[in-house]
Amino acid sequence: MEYNFKDIEARWQKYWQQNNTFKAEDRSTKPKYYVLDMFPYPSGAGLHVGHPLGYIASDIIARYKRHRGFNVLHPMGYDSFGLPAEQYAIQTGQHPALTTKKNIQRYRRQLDKIGFSFDWDREVRTSSPDFYRFTQEIFLRLFNTWFNKKTGKAEPIADLIAAFSFSGTEGVEAAASEDLHFTAEDWNMYSEEAQEKILQNYRLAYRAESTVNWCPALGTVLANDEVKDGLSERGGHPVVQKKMMQWSMRITAYAQQLLDGLEEVDWNESLKETQRNWIGRSEGARVEFSLQGHTEKIEVFTTRPDTIFGASFMVLAPEHPLVDGITVPEYAGAVKKYKEQAARKTERDRMADVKTISGQFTGAYAIHPFTQKSIPVWVGDYVLASYGTGAVMAVPAHDSRDYAFARQFELPVLPVVEGGDVSKEAFEAKEGTVVNSDFLNGLQVGEAIHKAIAQIEEMGLGEGKINYRLRDAVFGRQRYWGEPIPIYYKEGIPMPVKAEHLPLSLPEVDAYLPTEEGEPPLARAAAWEYDPEKGVVAKGEGYPLETTTMPGWAGSSWYYLRYMSPQAGKLVDEEAVRYWQEVDLYVGGSEHATGHLLYSRFWHKFLHDLEIAPTTEPFRKLINQGMILGNSAVVYRVEGKNTFVSYGLRKQYKTTKIHADVALVNSSDELDVEGFKAWRDDLGNAEFILEDGKFKVGREVEKMSKRWYNVVNPDDICAQYGADTLRMYEMFLGPLEQSKPWNTAGISGVHGFLRKLYRLYVQNDSLLVNEEKADKKELKALHTLLKKVTEDMNTFSFNTSISAFMICVNELTELRCSKREILEPLAICLSPFAPHLAEELWHKLGHATGISRVDFPAYNEAHLEEDAFVYPVAFNGKMRFKQELPRNASKESVEKEVMQNEKTKHYLEGKTPKKVIVVPGKIVNIVV
RNA sequence: GCCCUGGUGGUGGAAUUGGUAGACACGCGGGACUUAAAAUCCCGUGGACAGCAAUGUCCGUGCGGGUUCAAGUCCCGCCUGGGGCACCA
């Protein structure tokens, strides 16, 4: 019997399930290893071959670590709240819970076929009330916490209230939306409502009027990372800026820690860089400029305080609160008009419009703090209200945007750093000698920045300051299919739902759309009010409950902790968490760099402050698997006709491209014409212009998507070649972290390898394995493989491991080696990659128990050694011939042997070499 | 514009980190077995030139320089694919 993967795979998948083979222990004397995949959103389309790529890699590591004696936690679950299920519900009226359940079942079936070693007892689903009650608990903990800058930690809001009633804001250093000042008397006199309003300024989960990304098509707000180029990431709908009362997360409190934490994790550089860019730390100074005839001052933030003497005008954002107050009557009309015009522009317009410079003079003047000269104050939309202070001191000589503005409105340009020619463009380099700057003259830019800040602080004009680009994350979504926010409103004051009433379950609604008044879907629920004694009650019987739900990233920000104790009746079981600590290896796509991976670090640091999470970072090592791209097939239709032309002849016609289903194309790019005709109604009577009797398609590499008909389903591959072939082929395709197109053509090589390997053990239904002693060559073949695989486990270079397997098996086949001494370790080594086949072989070798926890065979360097080294002999660095020499020969004797060789003499042509270089074990180079 | 990454045969990709470039696989060409096909096995396969031949010589890792006995690998200057940030002061 040939290698019958169908039987083998079905048998061992059943065996693993029945024996609970991959159950992880929460208490163990073994060392632990936690290897995690980013859990999927169970979409209706099911899995394509790109999805399992990362899961296969993590499964290889998980299985390998088990062989190495680790207690491995390798769980899987579903990120099952989300927009697609909800939109499907809107269209069909089906409850999203139902479609989600169906999709999960399909995912599970597909995953099971590939033979992963997940501990399914630990499965989590973010949309399950058993899970989201704890997501809600974390929300309440965030609500009840403020960030103390002095300790660098989250602390109970009660402590802050105590501090306020004792000494007001004096001595309090808190992360806050606004810098507030009041005394203890003030605080104690405030109404409860006023006090709560102030507390919202400090809570880590808080409500605030903020400018949000509103997507009218989706009817909801979006976080910054969910917006790409002014369009929603899901669906690509336009997004506009809108002011709304919103729940937010004070992630900015942790900006510095999120930045610093990147130093201690083992992630790739580009991902760290993406997060650094997103956090966007910039060092500089806050400086106040007085205004002529006003007591208010304009505050600016600058990273170049050294250029302050070059400040020749100031620009306020159109939304800046001082604009109206300082504008002189004769400019009032023009300023008003300008502000309106700016307000009409969406974020997208502004971005598309970077080159048009617009602005308006206010008629007001500020006073330069050092020269006392008056400088004009303008309004301009290139200054953003949301960053820094919403105002800038313009130094046109050394900032290109200020420069463009100055040129447009003919404002003075004063160079203060040597090295540029400001007649053409701004000189922005952070180097050179400062000039025309009084006490800064002669200093280098770096020194001047420090001195300027020192002087600004001494004169009480401001201070050194660090700004971050990172914004607080909008947390409320006007949607149905998400975690309800456990808050009710008592006389308008947000109050936490009591712990005993969690989970606050999603109510039934009659439709999944917003109400006619524009309220979120939850406002439709018949029972969506709250009584602190009874819990959720019907309309009119309690206080109104919050109607927005949490965003998609809420559940995924802590699910990795839940896997440690998935059945615990509390957030986490302390003992389990103490044992598992953190995720040792996290595998997932880099598209989550500024979303999930940042938010979960934020929550983790918060939970660490509460002493729930033992570590400061959640994911020790992170690997981004590349995307598997689709290899689309395109056919060329002659314009205006229902005639298609083969790829090679397309240039002779005027054609348009049409995607064809890749299932209709064979590996030589030939189209199944009859299948294509039957594929779509309009193609039934299509004509085809062939080349050499065949119709060829063009190929294009694109994202794998239903839309391009280029989706390859792993089920089909499993049916045709088996899961082990699929697993190995996906790894063989190329480096894990690289994106690459799927190409089914190459799969035969890997499949052939597995059959060849099988034939080492079994032929004609009988076991070939014998008990003879292995010889040197056979041991070398095996140990070369063991060494390569062992080393590749650290670098995730599974593609080269598989090459090593092929070399080893080719060699053993050639040697006709079927010795147990070789084949037993070979089966274990294969187990992480092709687990079904490895189990089968292990069983055939006579072992009654499974292979999964058998010790991984160690390689022995002694078996890799050769009796003789083959030294390449080079002349002037060019290789000419090779010479075999004893392994333990000294440098000198190698040199002597080589110099006496006939060929050497031939190449030397009687000349004496200038130099002879012997690199032991590598090369001999003779320089003539 | 700034930052991070890559660029190697017809294709996917190797190369012990400065030491025989192109491992392994696909594809292609040739052969064996077979009535035939499938399957399997063997040989060849970067380019150019010379030779009946074994073989030999030269050129070759995006481009141009440099360091070195020796460069895909290190340094300088460009070109180019992918990703991130972006009127962020």
Helical residues, percent: 25-40%
Q: Please give the largest β-sheet.
A: 7 strands, mixed
The termini sit apart by 62 Å
| Number of helical segments with 4 or more residues | 30
Query: How many strands?
Result: 36
Query: Approximately what portion of the residues adopt beta-strand conformation?
Result: 15-25%
Assembly of the depicted chains: single chain
Low-confidence stretches: none
Shape: globular
Report mean pLDDT, rounded to a whole number: 89
Structural class: alpha+beta
Rg over CA atoms: 34 Å
Keywords:
928 residues; alpha+beta; 7-stranded mixed sheet; 6-stranded mixed sheet; 36 strands; globular; RNA-binding
Plain-language structure description:
By secondary structure, the chain is an alpha+beta fold. The strands form ten sheets. Strands 10, 11, 12, 13, 14, 15 and 16 form a seven-stranded mixed β-sheet that branches. Strands 25, 26, 27, 28, 29 and 30 form a six-stranded mixed β-sheet that branches. β23, α19 and β24 form a beta-alpha-beta unit. α24 runs antiparallel to α25, α24 packs parallel to α26 and α26 runs antiparallel to α27. The radius of gyration is 34 Å and the shape is globular. The two termini are 62 Å apart. The chain binds one RNA strand of 89 nucleotides through α10, β11, β15, α14 and β30.
Q: What layout of secondary structure does this protein have?
A:
Layout: H1 5-19, E1 32-37, H2 52-67, E2 71-73, H3 83-92, H4 96-114, H5 129-143, E3 145-148, E4 153-156, H6 157-167, H7 184-189, H8 192-199, E5 205-215, E6 220-222, E7 227-228, E8 231-232, E9 240-249, H9 255-261, H10 269-279, E10 281-291, E11 294-302, E12 313-316, H11 323-326, H12 329-344, H13 347-352, E13 360-367, E14 374-379, E15 391-394, H14 400-409, H15 445-458, E16 462-468, E17 473-474, E18 487-490, E19 493-496, E20 529-531, E21 535-537, E22 543-544, H16 553-556, H17 559-562, H18 574-580, E23 583-588, H19 596-609, E24 619-624, E25 628-638, E26 643-645, E27 655-660, H20 673-679, E28 687-689, E29 698-702, H21 714-721, H22 723-732, E30 740-741, H23 747-761, E31 762-763, E32 766-767, H24 776-795, H25 798-814, H26 820-830, H27 835-844, H28 861-864, E33 868-875, E34 878-886, H29 891-900, H30 902-908, E35 915-919, E36 923-927
Parallel strand pairs: 1-2, 1-23, 12-14, 23-24, 25-30, 26-28, 33-36
Antiparallel strand pairs: 3-4, 5-6, 5-9, 7-8, 9-17, 10-11, 10-13, 10-16, 12-15, 13-14, 18-19, 20-21, 20-22, 25-26, 25-27, 25-29, 31-32, 33-34, 35-36
The structure holds one RNA strand of 89 nucleotides.
